[in-house]
């Protein structure tokens, strides 16, 4: 079997990857008493035993150094009601009201998130133009709400949720 080594167009690749529907998260941490947050959809579960998750952070993101310094972070999985929070932490929106944070397991978290996963930094891997952080799970909070989804450059909602309970 012969494999062609063709250059893949950047725009085509981005569009194809953007076709994969994902949830939306805000990664939060605290350094020297200051809360930092970043919208991300590059998040996944890695292992059940031990409980590990992964996030991917671009090399130019300020969050990169904040996680390295804090050595811990929280993943806030957003609800369908939290589009503004997603836009705020991605730099697309400057909310007139200040976002308030709660504290859980020593980390700042967004109130009313669908789920929160707190982690200590387990390991990190520089891969291409991103760093993949593996987090050792220290806590989980879960609510019964509809998720915020993102696909093809737009926020989406599930038309019908099967039994959330």
UniProtKB/TrEMBL annotation:
<dbReference type="Pfam" id="PF01613">
    <property type="entry name" value="Flavin_Reduct"/>
</dbReference>
<feature type="domain" description="Flavin reductase like">
    <location>
        <begin position="17"/>
        <end position="157"/>
    </location>
</feature>
<dbReference type="GO" id="GO:0016491">
    <property type="term" value="F:oxidoreductase activity"/>
</dbReference>
<protein>
    <submittedName>
        <fullName>Flavin reductase family protein</fullName>
        <ecNumber>1.5.1.-</ecNumber>
    </submittedName>
</protein>
<dbReference type="InterPro" id="IPR002563">
    <property type="entry name" value="Flavin_Rdtase-like_dom"/>
</dbReference>
<dbReference type="InterPro" id="IPR012349">
    <property type="entry name" value="Split_barrel_FMN-bd"/>
</dbReference>
<dbReference type="InterPro" id="IPR050268">
    <property type="entry name" value="NADH-dep_flavin_reductase"/>
</dbReference>
<keyword id="KW-0560">Oxidoreductase</keyword>
